[in-house]
Amino acid sequence: MLILVILVLAVGTYGFRLGGVLLRDRIALPATVARLLPLAAVALLAALAATAALTEGHGFAGVARPVGVLAGGLAALRRLPFIVVVLVAAGTAGLLRLAGVP
Amino acid sequence: MRTIWRTADRALIRDVAALVAAVGFVGLSFGAIATAAHLPLWAIVAMSVLVFAGGAQFLAVGLVSAGNPVAAVLAGLLLNARHLPFGMAVADVVGRGPARLLGAHLMVDESVAFALAQPDPGRRRAAYWLTGGALFVFWNIGAVAGALLGAAAGDPATFGLDAAFPAGLFALLLPNLRAPGRKDAAAPWVAGTGAVVAVAATPVAPSGLPVLLALVALGLAFVVPVRKAAVSC
């Protein structure tokens, strides 16, 4: 199952990559589609970040994880490097759990 | 290869080196997070080498571990559909003949952005191959290192790795939302609405579907204008 997910994703992605290169002179992408594609990426990534931060299964994810994500998010807003964002988020959540916060 | 080094100037190589270091750490995080989501090492390596698209890889891991592989494929492909217009924008630098087949695989946000920022065709070609090639190597080294580190760390929740994933996604997303750099004024509205819709749908919708439902936020694109002229790419 997992191998299928990876292969379909790989073939499809490569198809988009090579397709654009080969189609360049043959079609023009409608302006609306060209605008919506990057916005779709933004919507999907934002939705994934929010659900991964706040939910677990069909319920809420507790306290430690959302607070950790909030701390990491603040680090990102302050333009700190990616690795710092990740470490702040993980460290905060880890320390809160160590202190007994769910 | 020699022509690439000759045409790529010092400033470009410095910028690419900084970017590659950052991407290596994102790859490291990907490997560690995918391990925490119980993906085996072979799957992490296969995904990083064959898909080679950070956002889609994170998305797919999140949705696979949520138990919805179909949503993982659909959302990943939708996310990567942007490579179609990318390919049209950089077709001339990707190469001719068989080289094109390899060059197309090195097409990621960063290699396209660096290429388009160069003033002439020679430098565009050099920037594209240099950025894409270096990112491919370091992304994959990072992913393997992260997977090994993640496996050594044990239970991901103890070290807060479950919080690292959404925070990292937010950091990757931020340049698209912030006022000076963003290409579309609708982006923060779409992101915020998509996030709210997905979280609200989570208690009731089957796993994986809430993230796809966020696409209804695209309707806002017809209400909020681009405002700033979009960079053609």
Notes on the structure:
The complex is a heterodimer of chains A (102) and B (233). Chain A has 102 residues and is mostly helical. Chain A folds into two domains: 1-57, no CATH class; 62-102, no CATH class. In chain A, 75% of the residues lie in helices and 4% in strands. Chain A has four helices and two strands. Chain A has a two-stranded antiparallel sheet with strand order 1-2. In chain A, helix 3 (64-77) packs antiparallel against helix 4 (82-98). Chain B folds into two domains: 2-164, no CATH class; 178-233, no CATH class. Chain B is 71% helix and 0% strand. Chain B has twelve helices and no strands. Chain B is globular. Classes of the chains: A mainly alpha (102), B mainly alpha (233).
Name the strands of the widest sheet of chain A in spatial order. Answer: 1-2
> What low-confidence regions of chain B span 5 or more consecutive residues with pLDDT below 50?
229-233
Helical residues, percent of chain A: over 70%
Distance between the termini of chain B: 26 Å
Q: Report the oligomer.
A: heterodimer
Q: Which series of helices and strands of chain B comes N to C?
A: HHHHHHHHHHHH
Largest sheet of chain A: 2 strands, antiparallel
The tally of beta strands of chain B, per DSSP, is 0
Backbone structural class of chain B = mainly alpha
Percentage of residues in strands of chain A: under 5%
Q: What is the domain total for the residues of chain B?
A: 2
Task: List descriptors.
heterodimer; A: 102 residues; mainly alpha; 2 domains; 2 strands; 4% strand; B: 233 residues; 12 helices; 0% strand
Short summary of the structure?
The complex is a heterodimer of chains A (102) and B (233). With 102 residues, chain A is mainly alpha-helical. Chain A has four helices and two strands.
Layout of helices and strands, plus pairs?
The complex is a heterodimer of chains A (102) and B (233).
Chain A: H1 2-23, H2 31-54, E1 55-56, E2 59-60, H3 64-77, H4 82-98
Antiparallel strand pairs in A: 1-2
Chain B: H1 2-7, H2 10-36, H3 41-50, H4 54-65, H5 69-80, H6 83-94, H7 98-105, H8 109-116, H9 121-153, H10 161-177, H11 187-201, H12 209-213
Helix pairs in contact in B: 2-4, 2-9, 2-10, 3-9, 4-5, 6-8, 8-9
